[in-house]
Sequence to fold (65 residues):
Amino acid sequence: MKVSVDQNLCIGCETCPVICPEIFAMYPNSNFAYALIEEVPAELEDCAREACRTCPVEAIIIEED
Fold:
């Protein structure tokens, strides 16, 4: 699975890095999240999916293999 954050949609609510800090972080001095890694290890897939489900603006994009 691959994951990314659509910067045009992200509102910087910080939900994704709280839910899944192994995958998501906030850009310093900005209000946008980004994916720390593109390829999600199998053991973190559930965490990535939960972050995606809880994003209030659906900015997290998941591509299944």
Notes: The longest helix spans residues 45-54. The helical segments are 15-19, 45-54.
